[in-house]
Amino acid sequence: MAFKSMLSVLTDLSLMDTVLAQGIALARDADAHYDALCLGVDRSQTGYYYAGANAMILQETLTRAKTESQELEEKAIEILRPSGVRWGVETGVAQIADLGRHVAAHARFSDLVILPRPYGDKIGAEIEPTIEAALFEGQAPVLVVPTDRAPMSTPKHITIGWNESSEALVAVRAALPFLKTADTVRVVVIDPPTHGPNRSDPGGLLSQFLSRHGVRVEIDVLSKTLPRVSDVLMRHAKDTEADMVVMGAYGHSRFREAILGGATRNMLEQAEIPVFMAH
To answer: Smallest Cα–Cα separation from 27: which of 83, 79, 76?
Structure first.
């Protein structure tokens, strides 16, 4: 299945140029329809201080969010109108505690959701729950785009982070439209288990599966020579000049990753190239 319906959720004027440029480039290559949801977010988390707030304060936060959504809409239309792709723009207002419902309602009918990287300087608190809502409630693959990176067209060199997990397999299946058109796809296995049915051929069954789809696959088995698996994967992607990394998202619970860290969070914190994730 090709990516024919793409979506970006825009909540920050300073991040939308990079995201829209990436979405336009991919939509143009795939002859896809590209939608932009411009959400003004009330970040005050009203429910936490409702008893101490009067009606004027509540109205002010909602009015500010509505103004932000209108500004996002105007800029999105300005960028999309001359792009040459089929596009649509919607606006809305959401409280940050209820953000997931609005994102999921649109993401569940999209083939691919393109969003900014959720961590870094001056990144709003709403970006991370937006990604999680698209992945979990929306059940859509997400392409996370680093800030201020030139847009890629259809990726030609792709790295897959493979650990035999269900999440990784879902991500690989979802990424097949990209994988089938890539020049090289590297399946990266880091410290494969010494016991198990695939110990003598790590990544072999995945390679066979992809080859039958016409994907040009290589397998790289690496040792964990850096403190974190994500460090090894990202260094390898950089050394091989990968355009994109494909990986499963949140193999551990989101709460555990938020408190203790994990491969998903660590990868998104340091990613310098787009990361394709699914759960």
So the answer is: 83
Name 154's bridge partners: none
Question: What's the number of CA atoms in the CB half-sphere (13 Å) around residue 35?
Answer: 19
pTM of the predicted structure, to 2 decimals: 0.90
CA–CA–CA angle 270, 251, 148 (5° rounding)? 25
At 259 the pLDDT is: 41
Cα within 13 Å of Cα(38), Cβ side: 22
Gap between the Cα atoms of 71 and 38, Å rounded: 9
Domain of 101, in residue numbers: 5-145
Q: Is the pLDDT of residue 60 over 90?
A: no
Report the CATH number that the domain containing residue 53 is assigned in CATH.
3.40.50.620
Q: Which amino acid is at 181?
A: T
Q: Please, what is the angle between helix 16-30 and helix 55-80, to 10°?
A: 40
Provide the 8-state DSSP code for 149.
P
CB 190 within 8 A of CB 266: no
Is position 150 within any domain? no
